[in-house]
Design brief:
- With 184 residues, the protein is of the alpha/beta class.
- 36% of the residues lie in helices and 18% in strands.
- The strands form 2 sheets. The protein has a 4-stranded parallel sheet with strand order 1-2-3-4, sandwiched between helices.
- It is globular and about 55 Å long.
- This is Peptidase S9 prolyl oligopeptidase catalytic domain-containing protein.
- InterPro entries: AB_hydrolase_fold, Peptidase_S9_cat, Serine_Prot_S9B/DPPIV.
- It comes from Clavelina lepadiformis (Light-bulb sea squirt).
Length: 184
């Protein structure tokens, strides 16, 4: 099984992999938060109070204080826009630095001059979903789809949710029917 998420979902993906339960073979975190010390103060302080009044709480929810050895039990990828104005790129840099110091094998992909939504460039948002699909295929040793393939891995976006997508397998005929129905 794979787990992935964007923003808070990237944070929970990263935390899930840090737990080392070996349930997930791979995790893909887009714009994950490393520490609440670096996050939007209005949001964070509303729920956690000031850092100096809740140091223990801020430390407990930091990825940097989790058991980084557990990242060796799964494949982990971190993806981030370098101009992210919500979860600042420094978060990705700190997670990468901590994983390198713990001698964890992971990969990363950074979108230059992209904000939190990774949609400034003409192909950036489409590219990120292609990247996630490619990483999932590699994780499960799945071949690239052929033109007449019976099964295609797609990302299905939830329309009424702030959370991003999840991986699903769909029969090509079902996918074609869904696309045709959506065009009408």
């Amino acid at each position: 099984m794979a787990v992935w998420g964007w923003s808070y979902g990237g944070y929970t993906t990263t935390f899930t992999i840090s737990e080392g339960a070996e349930v997930f073979k791979c995790g893909f975190a887009v714009a994950p938060l490393a520490t609440r010390f670096l996050y939007d103060s209005i949001h964070t302080e509303r729920y956690m109070t000031l850092p100096e009044d809740n140091v223990d709480g801020y430390e407990k929810c930091s990825i940097l204080n989790s058991d980084l050895e557990n990242f060796k039990k799964a494949s982990y990828s971190i993806i981030h826009g370098t101009a992210d104005d919500n979860v600042h790129f420094q978060n990705a840099a700190l997670i990468s630095k901590a994983l390198i110091e713990a001698n964890v094998d992971f990969d990363n992909f950074y979108y230059a001059d992209e904000a939190h939504s990774v949609n400034y460039g003409p192909n950036s948002n489409r590219h990120i979903y292609k990247l996630l699909t490619s990483k999932a295929r590699r994780c499960f040793d799945l071949p690239a789809p052929e033109m007449n393939s019976d099964v295609t891995l797609i990302l299905k976006q939830r329309k009424r949710s702030r959370s991003k997508s999840h991986f699903v397998f769909q029969d090509d005929m079902m996918l074609r029917n869904n696309l045709r129905d959506n065009r009408q």
